[in-house]
Design goal:
Layout: H1 2-20, E1 32-37, E2 40-45, E3 53-56, E4 59-62, E5 71-74, E6 77-79, E7 82-84, E8 87-89, E9 92-94, E10 97-100, E11 108-111, E12 114-116, E13 119-121, E14 124-127, E15 135-136, E16 139-140, E17 146-147, E18 150-151
Antiparallel strand pairs: 1-2, 3-4, 5-10, 6-9, 7-8, 11-14, 12-13, 15-18, 16-17
Length: 152
């Protein structure tokens, strides 16, 4: 009986931990995104753009809080499964978040993303670019995959 109680208790703890930290395991259908509402993931209509939005009371509102210093907004997106060396990395959902940008060199200044008339203007570099390089702003690629801003 004691072993049964231990096994059941361990099973409950494992089940609780897995469900408490569960994230979506499937890509959302076109025009939808995953959001966490009341501790559960649910599909909702995608926000009207790639800027920072907050999902509140079943609608999207602009997040007008100033961005953290030296950071770029990364909208929510699905990362398809892929091989990393010999290891398979399953597809996974990434919630919208701010990510630190790193200076490409002396003389470059990061201009943070901001709202302008209800439209999101992505962050970009001003000043002297690295020799022979051009800044490619962050954008959505094939299949809606998010491509971070980068130097090319």
């Amino acid at each position: 009986m004691k072993k049964l109680v231990i096994v059941l208790s361990a099973s409950f703890i494992i089940l609780f931990c897995v469900s408490a930290f569960a994230v979506p395991t499937d890509a959302p259908p076109p025009g939808k995104v995953w959001v966490e509402v009341g501790g559960e993931w649910t599909l909702v209509v995608a926000p009207p753009g790639d800027g920072p939005y907050i999902y509140k009371e079943r609608k999207w509102i602009l997040d007008t809080a100033p961005p953290p210093a030296e950071s770029e907004w990364i909208p929510a997106h699905w990362v398809p499964g892929h091989h990393k060396g010999s290891v398979w990395v399953p597809g996974h959902w990434v919630s919208g978040h701010w990510e630190t940008v790193h200076s490409p060199g002396k003389g470059a200044k990061w201009i943070p993303g901001h709202w302008k008339g209800g439209n999101w203007v992505s962050g970009h570099w001003a000043g002297s670019p690295p020799p022979g390089k051009k800044w490619v702003p962050a954008h959505r690629g094939p299949g809606g995959r998010w491509i971070h801003g980068h130097w090319r």
